[in-house]
Each structure stands twice: as C-alpha cells, then as structure tokens.
Amino acid sequence: MPLRTITSLKSFRLTVIAMVSLVLAIASYAAYWYAWYRISALPPKIVDLRKPPYHGTRYLTFCAGLAGNPHGFPGHAYVVWSKTNKEDPLQADSIGFIPKKYNDQFISPLVTVPGMLHYHAALYNQRNLESLTVIVDPETFDKTIAERNKWEDTDFHALTRDCLSFTTHIARTAGLKVPTNRCMYPQDQIRALKSLN
Description:
Elements: H1 3-36, E1 45-48, E2 58-65, E3 76-82, E4 93-99, H2 104-107, E5 113-119, E6 130-136, H3 138-149, E7 155-156, H4 163-174, H5 186-196
Parallel strand pairs: 1-6
Antiparallel strand pairs: 2-3, 2-6, 3-4, 4-5, 5-7
C-alpha cells in the first residue's frame, strides 16, 4: 500500500476517534448537567440585613431556577423586589437580565449583544428553584432599584455581563457577601450566596 494511502487512513482514523470522543464528552456532560440540576433545591434561606432602629421593612429575593425551555439549560438567575413578605413572587417585580433577542443567547458567549431587563422573570423560571430572601430597610431597597434600572438597555455578554452579573451586583448593593467565582450556573450562584450569608 502506498505511503500516501497509509497516511490518509491514519488521519481519517484519528479524525473519527476525535469526533467520537467529542460526541461522547458532550453527551456525558449533558447527562451530568441534566441529573445534577434536577436534584432537589436546598431549603429557602432568609437573612436580615437591617440595622436597628428599624424604619420599615422590604424584601429582596435572589432566585435561580431551570430556564424556561424544555431542557432547562442553562438556568436563569433573577431578583424579586417585594414590599411585604406575603407578596406572590409571580405578581411581584421579578427581574433578570437577558439578551434583547432570543437567538442572541447562542452567540453571547462569543460576542457582546444588546441586553435588557426581563420583567416577570419568575413566570418562566420556577423549576427546581433556589432562593435567598434578604430583609432590608427601605433605603437599601430603593438603592437596589436605582442600580437595577441602570441595567436597562445595556450590553449583554455571557460570562461577563449576564444574569449572574446582574444578581451579583444587586446582592453586593444590598450588602451581601458575594461569590468571587464567575464560572458557575445560576443555581450554583444562589447556593453560594446562601452559604456566604
């Protein structure tokens, strides 16, 4: 057999092995993700950040659940602003940060795309919900709303300025300790917030 044919066969075999390995790696990761993020969420946690004397009470709830698509991937983090502890999260101001165009989420890890505040975020992201409720004074509550509004019509980039960045920014503004790791899924971020506070 000519040397050129033998070299071509070796290259072909290496290409097939590489492709099969890639498919197996992706399938394994998908199976891991599917199983891990369907494990029951931790119980909700409540943290009181008010300092006496109390001059009113407001509530911020940091949430993350499976995304509003059939697979739940990759999940979504958002914040619920409430004036009472009895307000239904589905009726309260539940707001996250997302790309303006749905299909932009697929290219947003590679390029910056237009972003927007996503109102009523709780409507589509309640599956396997992780949550941390923070009790704050009205001044802190208003400060977080002012910071929230600065995110309207700004750039979105997965991993650098996304729903995790948004919830982390609001959590820091409210006075919470925040995780330093940026490479995590939304539910992991809320679990980290719970363990730090």
